[in-house]
Amino acid sequence: MTKHPHETDVAFIQALAELLNKNDLTELAVMREYGENDSLEVRVVKQAPVAAAAPVYAAAPAPAALAAPAAAPAPAEDPARHPGAVASPMVGTVYLAAEPGATPFVAVGDAVKEGQTLLIVEAMKTMNHIPAPKSGTVKRILVEDGSAVEYGAPLMIVE
């Protein structure tokens, strides 16, 4: 584990993610040595786009909404551009509950308060609680429990 400032490691990981995307790679692993007993191992893996890789959990539309194609939202809508999107602050593995089999932190339709834990992203064996950036209602959960996420990937929508 590194003894260097967290911001330096985050910037390094972000640069690796950008390098992965820029060079159309699917995986990149790096070991950065700072000195004796002081290193950082990073593995960045690119997954399929979130919309294709994981099902979107949302309330089912009313039958009338299904019959009216003009009322349906555009299928190419990018959840990452949604103003209520909660993005992953790091590369890691998403967990929707504190432990396997436990009740998820939130579900679609739940009211959340700013700072409330929405989910966990495990990165380098550290469990990072991801808080709600604002109070609102969980409209969509865009990831599956145990799935890999990239830096900046949308995790859920809170409006």
TrEMBL record:
Gene Ontology annotations for the cellular component aspect, listed alphabetically: acetyl-CoA carboxylase complex
Record keyword Glycosyltransferase present: no
Keyword Lipid biosynthesis tagged: yes
Pathway: Lipid metabolism; fatty acid biosynthesis
InterPro entries the record matches: AcCoA_biotinCC, Biotin_BS, Biotin_Carboxyl_Carrier/Decarb, Biotin_lipoyl, Single_hybrid_motif
GO biological process: fatty acid biosynthetic process
Pfam families: Biotin_lipoyl
One function term, GO molecular function aspect: acetyl-CoA carboxylase activity
Protein name: Biotin carboxyl carrier protein of acetyl-CoA carboxylase
Gene for this chain: accB
